[in-house]
Amino acid sequence: MVSLLDIIGPVMVGPSSSHTAGACRLGLLGRGLVGGTPHKAVIELHGSFARTGEGHGTDKAVVAGLLGFRPDDERIREALQIAEREGLDYRFEKTTLGDAIHPNTLRMRLERADVSATLTGSSLGAGRVIVSEIDGYPVEVNGNFHTIVLVAEDRKGSIARITGILAEHDINIATLRLTRKERGGDAFMVIECDDPPGEALRDEIRGLDWVRWARRLDRVGGGGAGN
Amino acid sequence: MYRALADAIRDADARGQTLAQVAIDQEAKDQGRSAAEVRSSLARALVVMRSAIGDGLVGDLYSASGLVGGDAAKLMTGPAGPLAGTPFRDILSRALAVQEVNAAMGVIVAAPTAGGAGILPAVMTGLAKAKSVSEEKLVDGLATAGLIGAVIAERASLSGAEGGCQAETGAAAGMAAGAATEMLGGTPQEVGHAVALTMQGMLGLVCDPLGGLVELPCVFRNATGSAIALAGIEMAMAGITFAIPVDEVIDVMGEIGREMDVRYRETAGGGLAATPTGRRLAKERLYQIRRSTE
Question: Is B207 strand, coil or helix?
């Protein structure tokens, strides 16, 4: 659903809503995955990101996002120098991810202490983004909500258990999508929340022996000019 | 938000409301916010828009490549042309001002994108000043613009990489035309025609910036896009109607974008970017950017 404030917004540092603001939001989503500024980041740029990213400051914007700067933060201009001071070792590479994927797409591999993560995301224009892959799992996360993604065994009562844990942590669910490839196969859950889920909640979900994998992503967009 | 402007116009007519009111109510419902919160977010966007116009008109900002800068001030204070002293010329300078700030990595409001961010603030604040429009109506106008942009996002595209410049400055011009028409007292029907009359004039516009950067011709396309929006406003408010319904005009913009060769979608592979001078400038200036940040 498109928000009016996505259209009149975001308030951002130029010059490109897709190559700068959207790229910064993808960086922020990556930062959320590893729980802070990564020590190492390898970012592969595809399509228009690869061809025109440099002049648009896409490199500065992604690194700024990894450092926790939002799209309207004027420190984006000096993000590469700040990354050096903060010990973020980044590297940009050009890649081709095929014709089927959006022209403004990047893939990043992040490491922070003993945590690592991969993320593939696209910038759709007007600062809107979509994450299509995390740690090799296909997802669909737009960053407009705090989001939990998890893969679990397909078994009865799993939704009740997960939503129960969210309720205990006083988290209201905005949307919940459940998909599976086949009966009895892996069930894939994307839960968008109104309130930010903490690491304790994520760890509790991870502690369930039938949950194979779980991640949380911070809200990075939506509400446009309001943020 | 609405997926068809026809639906929003029908609801506005049925309720005796403006499109701005209909859009703000729908946004409040969709996002679980109050109408007052939506308005205050838009009012904050307006503050940033005005500040970008002010910064750009000073004329001391240049992009990293040096290809862009100083022209907004030139239009504001330079030698008189046939339209000197009119809102038209004022609006063109405002559009250039926002884009010069954007190219210099200053703070702007993407509306709907950064590449087209000059048009809506220029047309809205320029006409509001010329016609002494209240602040409240100006903020409401931004809601009308957001509604139009949301419909374009759903039915077509707002990305130059997907749909060419018609999806960025074309969408922005349509948004500005519809929003200003309502701000100046036009009916919801007239808003629809203003959007259609404006966007028909932007169909097929390619995205061909030098070196792929939001600089040339983007900055000037915001001025010319504003001019086309003013033409759309003037015609619609004179009672001229456009025979193709606005939603169909938007659909065809999306269709043309999907058919557009990749060279014309922000890749610097065609159009002005691929001219001998375009290639030379991109090479010389981009090389300089790289060297200066090493």
Answer: strand
- Mean residue pLDDT of chain A comes to 90
Tokens read off for A166: 């969210």
pLDDT tens column, A35-70: 899 999 999 999 888 877 777 889 999 999 999 999
Q: Do A125 and B157 touch (CB under 8 A)?
A: yes
Asked if A55 lies within 8 A of B212 by C-beta distance, the reply is yes
Structure tokens at B151: 């419909």
**Chain A positions in Cβ-Cβ contact with residue B111 (cut-off 8 Å):** 7-9
Q: Which residues of chain B lie closer than 8 angstroms to A3, CB-CB?
A: 1, 27, 30-31, 150
Q: Write down the ipTM of this complex.
A: 0.92
Interface of A with B in 125-144 (CB under 8 A): 125-127
**Orientation of helix B35-58 relative to helix B87-103, angle to 10°:** 90
Distance from CA of B211 to the nearest CA of A (A): 7
Question: What are the pLDDT digits (tens) for A1-45?
Answer: 789 998 999 899 999 888 899 999 999 999 999 989 999 999 999
Q: Where in chain B are the domains?
A: 5-293
Exposed, middle or buried by CB within 10 Å (0-12, 13-18, 19+), for B32?
Answer: exposed
At residue A202, what is the residue type?
R
Residue B161's pLDDT is: 85
**How far is residue B210's CA from residue B214's CA, in Å, rounded to a whole number?**
8
Fold of B5-293: 2-methylcitrate dehydratase PrpD (1.10.4100)
Please give the domain boundaries of chain A with CATH numbers for all domains: 4-144 (3.30.1330.90), 146-217 (3.30.70.260)
Mean pLDDT of chain B: 94
The 3 state secondary structure assigned to chain A is: CCCHHHHCCCEEECCCHHHHHHHHHHHHHHHHHHCCCCCEEEEEEEEHHHHHCCCCCHHHHHHHHHCCCCCCCHHHHHHHHHHHHHCCEEEEEEECCCCCCCCEEEEEEEEECCEEEEEEEEEEECCEEEEEEECCEEEEECCCCEEEEEEEECCCCHHHHHHHHHHHCCCCEEEEEEEECCCCCEEEEEEEECCCCCHHHHHHHHCCCCEEEEEEECCCCCCHHHC
